[in-house]
Amino acid sequence: MSATAATTFDSLREALRGRVVTPQDTDYDEVRSIYNAMIDRRPAAIARCAGAADVRTTLAFARETGIDLAVRGGGHSGPGLCLVDGGLTLDLSPMRWVRVDPETETAQVGGGAELADLDHETHAFGLGVPAGIMSTTGVGGLTLGGGHGHLTRAYGLTIDSLIAADVVLADGTLVTATDKEHPDLLWALRGGGGNFGVVTSFTFRLRPVHTVGVAVTVWPVDRTAEVLRWYREFLPAAPESLNGFFAVLTVPPGPPFPEPIHGQKMCAVIWCYTGDPEPGRLEDVLSVVNEPAPPAFHFTTPMPYPALQTLFDGLMPKGLQWYWRGDFFDGIPDDAVAVHERYAHTLPTPLDNAPLPRGRGRPPGRPRRHGLGLPGRRLVRRHRRHRPRPRQRRPHPPVVRRLLDRPAPALHGRLVRQLPRRVRGPRTRPLHLPGQLRPPDHDQTRLRPGQLLPRHPEHPPSAA
Ligand SMILES: Cc1cc2nc3c(=O)[nH]c(=O)nc-3n(C[C@H](O)[C@H](O)[C@H](O)COP(=O)(O)OP(=O)(O)OC[C@H]3O[C@@H](n4cnc5c(N)ncnc54)[C@H](O)[C@@H]3O)c2cc1C
Hints:
Layout: H1 10-15, E1 20-21, H2 28-32, E2 45-48, H3 52-65, E3 69-72, E4 88-91, E5 98-101, E6 106-110, H4 115-123, E7 127-128, H5 139-144, H6 152-155, E8 162-168, E9 174-177, H7 183-189, E10 198-205, E11 207-208, E12 211-220, H8 224-237, E13 242-250, E14 265-273, H9 281-285, E15 297-304, H10 305-309, H11 334-343, H12 350-353, H13 377-385, H14 401-405, H15 413-418, H16 421-424
Helix pairs in contact: 8-11
The structure holds flavin-adenine dinucleotide.
Residues 35, 70-78, 81-82, 92, 111, 132-134, 137-138, 140-142, 144-145, 147-149, 194-195, 198-199, 316 line the site of flavin-adenine dinucleotide (FAD).
């Protein structure tokens, strides 16, 4: 139910420690804006929760008034699941605290924290959590969706490091889910998405990570098929301390890329190496990058992990219009290679479809130039000050397969149907929770008229 004219938020405003922002506030548009500018929803109010008490109060308000509710972490959800037209957004973004316990090598992270907050705090102790590849993504939505990034081959998905969560359930109860207490809830949170409750704090086991080897290899775009075929053989056989993201991209107009390839469409792999830090080791591991085709550019450097995490921030800034699709894949079959090859030349990129504003007219907060650059001097200096004490390396846990092999109790119907059959597993016991949050996003995922993009014929129907 949307807010009626009679719905006022005065009582909520009085009860919260955080602010309640409504269309009458001058910063309403700023507060409701999210990463994907394709989404333009107008909640009746945004409750900026400062802690678990505010979360409980906001949930109670939603229950009593029957208003639709959406939960916002870092605001990176592609279809804008964190906003609901005419409803109430429970905004966790004031809760960006992180507390590291170096003794137990764990970190407690506020429900609205972004990856930059987490990386900043853990890096000082030579520790980290495997998470996404952009520093502005929310820990909340990313973790609840599984979470993968540069450390995934070495340390697994983000949920492989999630050991506990404080959750306010729909009826206002605050529970801590661990593998001992409410283990089915913890299971559900590990990749089941939102709607099981509002997570006010995540507890992660930390992994040793400080300086990583970073490499970028770009090949001419017309070698996409050869590179992809090579990548699908090379990476699974490579040490798990090596991660590689394949992409077809437009080369950013800045260092470290040489000028002749600026702005050109290329295919690329961005590598992250957490293995032997001995100089030259990464170069050895990647000595084979010319096997598929001679690279147009190949670059390696040691880098503080948080610097790697910010590499794409400038290239993909908030405020552009995006459309993504994702799926689970076991491999890269020839058909997929052919599709990549066919579309490689025509893929739109931020540099193509949204000419970056320059000079005086640019909106505030937008960088003048977006580049994949080296870490800033400040970061490097900070990194040098905080060299970690030597520690023993731990064995690498297996990667994505752990998610697929995890025993699967049946979850809440709609969510479970979104998972591929192999993840769903046989229907066993239902998950009993004291109540589910209503799913406002159910009919909110459509794009606005004129923005609906046709489904690619190559995309198989979802596993629903
Ligand atoms: C530019 C970009 C880069 C990305 N890169 C990666 C990547 O490298 N790896 C990866 O795995 N994913 C990546 N993603 C996907 C991203 O993880 C998901 O979109 C995720 O949902 C974003 O989380 P958020 O908290 O920022 O989003 P929000 O839009 O704030 O939240 C999305 C949904 O998550 C739920 N949610 C969020 N926080 C909480 C909470 N504390 N308690 C309960 N529910 C909550 C809510 O249901 C909410 O509707 C990327 C997305 C973008 C836009």
